[in-house]
Write a structure and sequence with these properties.
With 228 residues, the protein is mainly alpha-helical. The chain is 82% helix and 0% strand. α1 runs antiparallel to α8, α5 runs antiparallel to α6 and α5 runs parallel beside α7. The chain is globular and about 45 Å long.
Length: 228
């Protein structure tokens, strides 16, 4: 029964995500907010079911907490289109909630691979250089959000690179899924920065960033099944 629920949630998530993108592009922002939340709730549902199946209960709990704060972040980011006058505060609040979610992911990862930092730190430095190049290339203008979003970006890169490090130091299907998810998160946030802070946002980039984003969410939600 648990595996049936996982399959149902895994199917419903991309369906809700597709309808979210459609609603967003049609500028039906309230509807989009609800659908975006539904897609993320499906990921939380998957991780919740893994609590009854995983061999590493602590890891699964931390993943659920990370996904929950991701859900809050999702809703705050979506609401910036419902309340455009509060764009900056909602964007910053969403980023802050995602930051907390990534903190739980990092705790989970270092709980199973304490020496993942050996690989994570140089990879993070490389990612930050690439992010700077991306920022210069697209002439991103973050204004007063530059410092807090810069800190957030650095931590997302660290989380993603820590996931890669954990896969090298303690390889399993679960850590591999998390590593791919971490890379997807970095790519998604990089595209999001271009969408929000450049003069050239478009629907193609919007769709692409959400493909990477929900791929990351689904893979993280599934990872506890394969963590020893």
């Amino acid at each position: 029964m648990q595996y049936v629920l996982i399959i149902l949630f895994a199917v419903l998530c991309p369906v809700a995500a597709c309808y979210f993108i459609k609603a967003m592009e049609a500028e039906e922002h309230l509807k989009a907010t609800i659908l975006k939340g539904l897609a993320t709730v499906c990921c939380i549902g998957i991780a919740g079911v893994t609590l009854f199946l995983t061999k590493n209960h602590r890891f699964a709990v931390l993943v659920v907490l990370g996904l929950f704060f991701g859900f809050v972040g999702d809703e705050l980011l979506a609401l910036r289109f419902v309340y455009p006058d509060s764009f900056s505060s909602l964007f910053l609040g969403g980023a802050g909630s995602f930051f907390l979610g990534h903190v739980f992911y990092v705790i989970a990862l270092y709980g199973i691979a304490a020496d993942a930092w050996i690989i994570a730190l140089p990879l993070t430095a490389l990612c930050l250089v690439l992010e700077l190049v991306n920022s210069k290339r697209h002439s991103l203008d973050m204004g007063k959000l530059f410092i807090p979003l810069g800190i957030y970006c650095a931590f997302v890169c660290f989380m993603g690179c820590s996931a890669v490090g954990a896969a090298f130091k303690n390889f399993s299907v679960g850590t591999l899924l998390f590593a791919v998810a971490g890379v997807c998160f970095i790519i998604s946030d990089s595209i999001l920065s271009v969408q929000c802070f450049s003069d050239h946002p478009d629907n193609r980039k919007n769709r692409l960033l959400h493909v990477f984003y929900w791929a990351a969410q689904l893979l993280i939600a599934l990872s506890p099944l394969f963590i020893a």
